Amino acid sequence: MTSAGRKETTGRHMEQAILKLLEHRGPTATICPSDAARAVYAGDGDGWRDLMEPARRAARRLVTAGEVEITQGGRTVDPAAARGPLRIRRARRATTPADGASA
Known about the structure:
Elements: H1 3-23, E1 30-31, H2 33-40, H3 52-64, E2 68-72, E3 75-76, E4 87-90
Antiparallel strand pairs: 1-4, 2-3, 2-4
Helix pairs in contact: 1-2, 1-3, 2-3
């Protein structure tokens, strides 16, 4: 497999790991990118640290897809502007009367 193919496979696995981890938490819960990196890493030790940037990239792709939000200090932030520690949560979808929510 080529390097590009490995990156794509790792990226897909990372996206799936993020969504699966969030699925098993409460609707407003967050995860750290390290949670996804650890879930995808197959080895022993701290080799998962090499997957931190791929986890952050996967989270940014999921933001673009409308699946998740990236937060810092409990506030949603622009993924391109996020620096330092961040959290990932399910995207909060606005409800409208057409969705069946009471107005």
